[in-house]
């Protein structure tokens, strides 16, 4: 009986310790970077607006230059319904970090928007929220324009 009780206590302690450990943030940072790149790839195929809508959290806040932020996925859908957005806007994340809880993270990087006669450049930030299904969705997104890269 003592052996059983000892084994049970040991098993219980292992389970409790493993439940209290923080997630592997490096792995989660890689997941976010891969998701960010996948969203850029989808923007090239389907258009920027469709891509961000696909990856949007229900409570997304999208900052846009020269206008008020769009708050909520439904508001975003309504504002841009039936529009795909440009297919020449691409971006590449430079860095990602994830909170110790593993529930929120961010990426930031550089974007490029090519038009027929002009190319625009800028930086962006995206805050990602981990969903119950284990996927990452955009909670907050915005950016600015910059001079061309050196």
The CATH topology is Nuclear Transport Factor 2, Chain: A
Would you count the extended β strands for me?
A: 6
Number of helices: 4
The CATH class turns out to be Alpha Beta
Shape: globular
Concise summary:
The chain has 150 residues and is of the alpha+beta class. The protein is 37% helix and 35% strand.
Characterise the protein shown here.
With 150 residues, this protein is of the alpha+beta class. The protein has one domain (25-146): Roll (Nuclear Transport Factor 2, Chain: A). Helix content is 37%, strand content 35%. It contains four helices and six strands. The protein has helices at residues 2-20, 25-46, 48-54, 73-79; strands at residues 56-62, 70-71, 89-98, 104-114, 119-130, 136-146. A six-stranded mixed beta sheet has the order 2-1-6-5-4-3, covered by helices on one side. Helix 2 (25-46) packs antiparallel against helix 3 (48-54). The protein starts with a helix and ends with a strand.
Features:
Nuclear Transport Factor 2, Chain: A; 6-stranded mixed sheet; 35% strand; globular; disordered N terminus; alpha+beta
What is the element layout, followed by pairings?
Elements: H1 2-20, H2 25-46, H3 48-54, E1 56-62, E2 70-71, H4 73-79, E3 89-98, E4 104-114, E5 119-130, E6 136-146
Parallel strand pairs: 1-6
Antiparallel strand pairs: 1-2, 3-4, 4-5, 5-6
């Amino acid at each position: 009986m003592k052996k059983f009780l000892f084994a049970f206590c040991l098993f219980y302690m292992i389970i409790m310790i493993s439940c209290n450990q923080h997630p592997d943030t490096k792995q989660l940072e890689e997941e976010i970077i891969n998701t960010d790149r996948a969203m850029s790839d989808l923007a090239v195929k389907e258009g920027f607006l469709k891509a961000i809508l696909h990856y949007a959290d229900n409570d997304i806040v999208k900052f846009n230059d020269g206008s008020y932020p769009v708050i909520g996925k439904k508001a975003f859908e309504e504002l841009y319904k039936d529009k795909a957005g440009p297919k020449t806007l691409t971006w590449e994340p430079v860095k990602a970090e994830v909170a110790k809880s593993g529930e929120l993270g961010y990426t930031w990087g550089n974007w490029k928007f090519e038009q027929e006669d002009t190319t625009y450049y800028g930086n962006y930030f995206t805050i990602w929220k981990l969903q119950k299904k284990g996927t990452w969705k955009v909670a907050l997104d915005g950016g600015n324009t910059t001079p061309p890269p050196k």
